[in-house]
Amino acid sequence: MRGVNRPIPRKYKQHEGDACNISNNNLRPLTTIERSYIQTFPKTFQFQGTKSDLEQMIGNAVPVKLAEFVAHCIFEYISCRLYN
């Protein structure tokens, strides 16, 4: 996840792994809120800080639902070890 929502640089060369053609006129950067949804932050989550802080926070985040899944697995593992 990019930590910024700037347009693609003019000198960027198309890469074979790019998801779409970068010369598409409808192509635009994702907004900060759109990137937070991809990272599975709840719509009610209250972000605090400057725009740069938010972009970095969202860009560096572990997706919320992934963290929740890992925490649940650890909890189950510890529970099984304690009660078996």
Can you walk me through this structure?
This protein is an all-alpha fold. Helices cover 44% and strands 0% of the residues. It is built from three helices and no strands. The longest helix has 20 residues, at 64-83. The radius of gyration is 18 Å and the shape is elongated. The model has no long low-confidence stretch (mean pLDDT 88).
In short:
Helix content is 44%, strand content 0%. With 84 residues, the protein is an all-alpha fold. The termini are far apart.
Looking at this protein, list some descriptive labels.
84 residues; single chain; 44% helix; mainly alpha; elongated
Shape: elongated
Helix content: 40-55%
Structural class: mainly alpha
| Overall pLDDT metric | 88
Beta-strand content estimate: under 5%
- Low-confidence segments, given as residue ranges, are none
Find the count of extended strands (DSSP E, 2+ residues).
0
Topology order in helix (H) and strand (E) letters? HHH
How many DSSP H or I helices? 3
Q: How are the secondary structure elements laid out?
A:
Elements: H1 32-38, H2 51-60, H3 64-83
